[in-house]
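Review form for a predicted model. The reviewer records the input and the model, then writes brief findings.
Reviewer: anonymous (R2)
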Amino acid sequence: MKTYKKLFSLSIITFFSVISASAQTPDSNGVYGFATIMPAYQGGDDALFDFIHQNIKYPKDAWEQKKQGAVQVRAIIDEQGNIAQMKVVRGICPSLDEEAKRVISSTTGKWISGKVDDKPIKTYKYLKISFKIDTNSIEPAAMSKPIPPITFIGGDEAFDQFIKKYITVPNAVLIHPNLWGAVTVSVSFNSFNQITDVAVVKGPYKDLNEEGVRLIKLSQGKWIRAESAKAGVPINAIVTIPFNENMIDSNARKKFISENIILVACYTNPVFKRAYDNYEAGNYDVAIIDLEDCISKKENLDAALAIRAFCYLNTGNNAAACEDLTKLRMKPGMDSSVEEIYYKYCASAESRIGIHPSGWGK
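Model under review:
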């Protein structure tokens, strides 16, 4: 059947469940009306809108009869992010109803399932697709983006500035730029627009995910309800935090790496990390074996020399320790404890047990 894609506009609206004491329990079919983490389309509402925009078609019979309006659909998102079942709860005509169901069903597998107690569950998801014919245009009409029920005061730009101002960048992200990425969280608001709960839906890295949750909690009192959202009831919204490397100064990252050679080595070299763990546990002889492997391969050389020196000092082998410390002295980025301990143990014959590189990797 020939279908029409031009001369109509559409909007996709996600309905947000009202929170109640009984909502977070399954119905007789084992499906939840509300969850701690509500199901979300991968990439967020904008990605859902773009997908439907690219795939929706206007049926010929509905076009010819000038049928238009909103089709409301209730879908079940299962534990794997699939569309398990779908039902039109308010339709316009058979062809528009079927087209709404068709395009929504084609999103199966692209959802992040809802969760209760951190376990994936089946959850109801309400969607509305509005069809509208624009008879005054000879080109496809501009389509309206879905309106979120609650937004950051000042909009996206203000939200980005807030994130940049208050972000605490996790150490691993400074060392591995590939760990940057957007963090998507589910945020529950009470009837007064106050944040009551935040949970991660999707994110690139544990520490960055936790930072996203911290920042959202920090934004308490900075959210405003949309006019379309019903007043006086709790709502649940999906918020995406666009973390990226541009949020920090590149010079700050270089300075961090140069000043934290032990921490960088632990994150980047599993052999060194094992050696450092053994050093911390007092297994100095075992640690030295791995450190010598790193040194022979010139992997994290300065860090390996430093920790080997401290291992030697703790086993009473001051002569070997001083050889390593002599190689490290005055190197850029060296912790001041290297110079201090060199003068204490190499410039004199005194030997002590229990030395630790204070300030490194701590």
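Findings: The first strand starts at residue 3 and ends at 4.
Further findings: Residues 150-248 form a domain with the Fusion Protein Consisting Of Minor Coat Protein, Glycine Rich Linker, Tola, And A His Tag; Chain: A; Domain 2 fold (CATH 3.30.1150.10).
Recommendation: see findings above.
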